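[job 0417] fold request received: Membrane protein DedA with SNARE-associated domain
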Amino acid sequence: MTDWVVNLIDAGGYWGIALLMALENIFPPIPSELIMGIGGIRVGQGRMEMAPLLFAGTVGTVIGNYFWYWIGWKLGKERLRPLVRRFGRILTIEWKEVEMLNRLFKRHGEKIVFFFRFMPAFRTIVSLPAGLFHMGHVRFLIWTGMGALIWNIILAGSGMFLGSHFRRIDDYLGPVTTAAVGLIVIAYVWRLIRWRPNGDTNGDKRED
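[job 0417] inference complete; emitting structure tokens
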């Protein structure tokens, strides 16, 4: 994967960075660490500049996250009712938990979106519930952009200072990503086995 990313960055420049970062947030197997790290290497080599690199990477990140936010927005919380009613057992969720998440995003949506930007596997997923619970567009874009900018500064700075050694990160990203996904699957299976509904599973009772 490293060679493919390097070739696209060298061919597309900042546009290549923006495209890769957008795709990374739509198809998470493409690692942002590698993309921005290589961009940082190019800055250290004098082939790119840091400011436009960070701008391109952050714009691409926001676009990729907005894709999932838009899907969540179009679906909306109320359209979850038939899904919870029909697949509550498989999803291991009750409607009261959906309402709880809704209240959580209304109160702390900015913090959730911001801090999840630094968590593997979750930094893209968080955009979907943000859209489902209709977090404001401007709030979502601002806090996603802020978190993405900080994360990209860290990655690009690391690439610039570590130089060509940063490319070896691809050797570790695969196992780390696999481990993270494996933990998520294990947690889900554990919850599925132990889950017992104890309230309104159908979502028929509306809360004002």
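[job 0417] notes: The CA atoms of residues 143 and 193 lie 36 Å apart. The mean pLDDT is 79.
[job 0417] exit 0
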